[in-house]
Amino acid sequence: MTLIDVAFSKKQVSCPATSSPSPRKPAWVVDDWLRHKLPIQIVDPEPVSREDLARVHDRDYVDGVLDCRIPNGFRGRDADVAESLSWTVGSFLTAARLALDNAKVACSPSSGFHHAGICSGHGYCTFNGLLVAAKRLKDDGLVKRVGIIDCDQHFGDGTAEIIDEYRLDWITHHSHEYFLEYPRFGAGPRFLEALPGVVRGMAACDLLMYQAGGDQHQNDPLGGFLTTAEMAERDHIVFSEAKALNLPIVWNLAGGYQSPHERIIEIHRNTMLACVDVYCG
């Protein structure tokens, strides 16, 4: 039976004083997947180094955050957040390597990447794990081109900043200003109709990174415009099109802020169910 690789360690979980579920969500989601007996296998990730983080971030920023001298993306200086960050990014890099190794798919149950720029973080994002992973894989000669489909409800401004500043023209980045391009309600069919073409536009890439943001849901307090069924269809489209292209895909959780947290856990479960249906069915 095919199992979906999930790069996860409890060391990537932290508990800062924040309303965001992001620091705790990886453990909740993995526990839910195991409780529902989904066909996954947990793979221990390796943490990234400060040198890895400095591939796309200012070194003083990296050291300041990790030494708890300057605020992280949660606007605090919590030691447990600092300790978790190298594991969170390491989870995504490990999952990316797994997807390349199996030439199919792998998951990093992580959030908090795309608002992190070269020397700043906000919106619950401290380090840009997407671009740290992409740069490390490129430097190691494992990829020539990387695609990013960011389906978080909010624009990946940090990702765009780093790509533009460092002229990373080997990365194809797709991220919407959803609040401007799609009305709050009723735009799901138009969005879903365009999505297959977005994935096919990544055909020349060696790896696709997919942010399966839960905050695109219409009930999210910081989103969104898709129904539960449309969210599931979104995920199925991305996985199916990537598989048809023989394009390895690594995906993560990204945003999602509904309360109680069981509602966002269900959305992330549906993403894994779509992944299982495409790759294990």
Write a structural description:
The chain has 281 residues and is of the alpha/beta class. It has one domain: Arginase, Chain A (3-Layer(aba) Sandwich), CATH 3.40.800. Helices cover 43% and strands 11% of the residues. It has 10 helices and 7 strands. The protein has helices at residues 25-35, 50-53, 59-66, 79-102, 129-139, 157-166, 178-181, 188-200, 228-244, 262-280, and strands at residues 4-7, 40-43, 105-108, 146-150, 171-175, 207-211, 249-252. Strands 2-1-3-7-6-4-5 form a 7-stranded parallel β-sheet, with helices on both faces. α1 (25-35) crosses α10 (262-280), α4 (79-102) crosses α5 and α9 (228-244) runs parallel beside α10. The chain is globular. The protein starts with a strand and ends with a helix.
Describe the secondary-structure layout.
Layout: E1 4-7, H1 25-35, E2 40-43, H2 50-53, H3 59-66, H4 79-102, E3 105-108, H5 129-139, E4 146-150, H6 157-166, E5 171-175, H7 178-181, H8 188-200, E6 207-211, H9 228-244, E7 249-252, H10 262-280
Keywords:
281 residues; alpha/beta; 7 strands; globular
Q: Mind summarizing the main beta sheet?
A: 7 strands, parallel
Q: Give unreliable regions as ranges.
A: none
CATH architecture: 3-Layer(aba) Sandwich
Number of strands: 7
Order of helices and strands: EHEHHHEHEHEHHEHEH
Quickly count the domains: 1
**What's the CATH first level?**
Alpha Beta
Shape: globular
Radius of gyration: 17 Å
**Strand residue percentage:** 5-15%
* Structural class by helix and strand composition: alpha/beta
| Oligomeric state of shown chains | single chain
CATH topology: Arginase, Chain A
- Output the CATH homologous superfamily: Histone deacetylase domain
Strand order of the largest sheet: 2-1-3-7-6-4-5
Distance separating the two termini: 9 Å
Q: Number of DSSP helices?
A: 10
